[in-house]
């Protein structure tokens, strides 16, 4: 231990923890960092004993110090480790906190974005809520327009409020007694009960018309004063406040006499701007409008203009428009005057408007030069005012300040603002909003038009727009001619029970009247009152329908503008659309009737189509130009005078009694006499059963005579008017005198097909007679039909039962086809009588009836039909003066054809028994004449007989008034001849006879009569392919447009197989829209009950027609 301690001691000494100053510094001269902090003890010398004792003490102390130091070092190391660990943990915490802070920053950014989005969404939702509130308010306001409030009506505990209101309405409007239940929708009181004051009553009406009519009627009605009640409008709170604010201005306007009305109901051209239409809208717009419509499309959200036509009688010659929907130009020809119409929708910027007006100016310069006209009208929304002071409010100018762009455009192109011209200092506006007003909608006309026409222009309110309606009415200066349109009964009135009750009541009152002393007087007065009542009722009904139509359109707009319509809204839209469609279907039917068209199928309801047919028919029949002394004239006065002179001369009698008696005496022995039975039939009194048969013959949906009453009216009220009409006809039969209205007619001059309509001789006068006249003549027509076939020879095929026009055609064709069997060098002479029906003398008719043996009563009746009758001719704008009809049989009178064939039978008897004319011999049988009414054909042995025949016919002409028109007579040689004409009558190798072309080469007849008709039918069918028709509609069209054209020639001609196949191919390709045929022809032609669609196989049709010929021949061998 001593050694060890000694060694340890030495080691410690070597380390010199006690040390000296020399030991404080290391070898490099630096202070030793491990040096003790204790102060150094002073060195001194010690004794030996002391040294040992001190040595032991030092060792112990050193050991203790060492142990203490070791513990301190261990503690220090532990602390150091702990601190190191803490520092590491702190670093990790700092790193984590930094990541958390960064994440919070990102989340904060996202929250800021979400807050921004929520703010935007909130703004959108706020706008939507405001929009919904506005729409709800508008809907509430709109629904209240059907309501009235009743104030002051006494309230009882067990009252029937609806019945009380109904009784009050009946007192205010007595004419509504029968329909009050229909007029009222709902009636109820509102608000809590108050014992001191009766609650108000809300009355909801089924129609705005009735609501408005009652509202107007109650204002000064004594019933309201008696009951101390008052009707008021059902206004919202906002409307009441607005009404109070605007009322002083309304009073001021009333005092100034200002009034705004909605006009434009009877306009020819309607200019629309900002239509927002596209090409897809064209069909719908046109269909809803019901007439022609022209568009310049923009987009579904901007621009677009349109011009809508209504009953336009002229012709559209050119159409121009731009591609962005800012302008549309129509060039029209009306009564041979050219007009250029421009519809414009200006931009909102001055620069764009300047470019727009420059473009339109260039277009107008080109069109004016092209058509040689200065007649230009521009209408539309220019987005420019004419005067910045007069035409804008509020204005920044204090005096007149013309707009430079607008003024320069008018000056350069010779335009004037017609409204401002008529109202130089008036301030009136066409556009408005809550703070501004301006007159930016204009009609501009060229100055030249002011010299020729008078203008009326007005600015009035219009529905569904923030613009006013600007109307322009034009009429020629010094126009003394009034457009004279005869009244026509509106058959739609027959569906109105209220109207029918009124008519029946009127009939009863007049029939039982003691002041009117004869049936004829009662009947004439009844017709007058029926017309008067019908006109007034129609006007009232029209106004109601217009209100209803506007109401439906407004409701449709309301529902269609909803952003999220409900199922109920969708159902309401469907219901309203059906109502609107039905209204337009009724309009379509009117045009359909007037156009003489046919319904293709129930789904074909396009108003425009029938309106166009009607317009084309009117244009075809209209007399806008006429050749007068070989010079074309468009002057209305000259045309009217020429037509009057022509028909007055035409219907002037030139009857020669000696010539008539001489001719009839010559053939008297050949004239057959009617038997007693037939004579008694014609002589007997009129019976009620005959009247019932006559009404069945009276056609419906036909143009009436001057009194305007149609066959529809007579049939509907037949049981009511039959007793009076029976008495009238009996009186006429006994007195042989017609009432004044039955003696009048209206002539429509219809151009003959393929002839120049400017030549008046090429027009056929059709006389419209009153329905009562037709009923009377139907009675005696039926009597004539019962026995006339016995006295008219088989050579006459016209109008007689059991005789056919095809007999006449086949006779001529057979003579040509079998000419080898004819030995005579024969000729066929086709005669043409000039205005045959219109030139036969009345006295000659009466003489013929006497020679045939008709009795006095019948002859006197016929005389009464032609005694003191008169007519006028309808012109485009009026009618000619009336002129007497002293000759002629009116075309349009039921009995006229039968009287006419009795006259022409005298010619047949004369020629058949004339020994001077050599007849054509065919296999031992002599042929001389074939007739179909006035179409007369003579068969002559040789060329020498032609002059003889014409001379003989001249005798008949002098007696009857029927004169030959030699310019239109034709000859057909049975055998070949070198002659070109005989007696100035041309010899043809091809003639058109009774609608069939007959060529001397029989092989060409099929081509001539079928190829062109098939092409025409095919072109018509192709036009129909553009329309959306069902297969049933297309099958019907094959019958109407194609087969109907071919049946007539098919009855007379043999068809080659290739032509039959071609016809079938045309029809069935159309049925399948030129696509693959999904059903065989055999299935398609079956009856519907057998699974087919009743299509027609032309091969079967052709065979059927030929079999019918054979059957007819077997039953009537003497006719051939």
From TrEMBL:
Residues 94-135 form a coiled coil. Residues 1-57 are annotated as: Disordered. Residues 22-41 have a biased composition (Polar residues). Keywords: Coiled coil. Residues 731-998 form the Reverse transcriptase domain. This is Reverse transcriptase domain-containing protein. It comes from Nothobranchius rachovii (bluefin notho). Residues 1-12 have a biased composition (Basic residues). GO terms for molecular function: catalytic activity. The keyword Ion transport does not apply. InterPro entries: DNA/RNA_pol_sf, Endo/exonu/phosph_ase_sf, Endo/exonuclease/phosphatase, RT_dom.
